[in-house]
Amino acid sequence: MSTPPRRPRPDRLGEALRVLVRARRATTLPAARATPPSLIEVGVRLASLEHEVGEVRSRVNGVLFAVVASVLTQLVSRVVAG
Q1: pTM of the predicted structure, to 2 decimals
Q2: What are the Cα distances from residue 35, in Å, to 15, 42, 45, 46, 63?
Q3: Model confidence over 8-46: pLDDT tens digits?
Q4: Of 12, 24, 33, 34, which one's alpha carbon is 20 to 30 angstroms from that of 64?
């Protein structure tokens, strides 16, 4: 008897990032632009994106640290208990 195929887990971080990008684009970009953005505007946007990526990376690292710490705690408790 075969098991039914598993549904892939939703990529919550990826979806959250896509929502943030859509929201930022909706608030910062006018509907129609007569001229392309200047080099300064592009630089400011790039700096903003780098800052956001740094924040997300920091959060992900924090979650990974918490997971590793939890796993190590469980392993140590099993070694001590048994």
Answers
A1: 0.47
A2: 31, 13, 16, 19, 42
A3: 676 777 777 778 788 777 766 555 566 888 888 888 989
A4: 24
Q: For residue 62, tell me if it sits in a domain.
A: yes
49 neighbors 21 (Cβ within 8 angstroms):
no
Contact yes or no for 59/20 (Cβ under 8 A): no
In DSSP notation, 21-70 reads HHHHHHHHS-SS-SSPPPHHHHHHHHHHHHHHHHHHHHHHHHHHHHHHHH
Q: Which domain holds residue 69?
A: 12-81
* Number of C-beta neighbours around residue 5 at 10 A: 6
Q: How many domains does the chain have?
A: 1
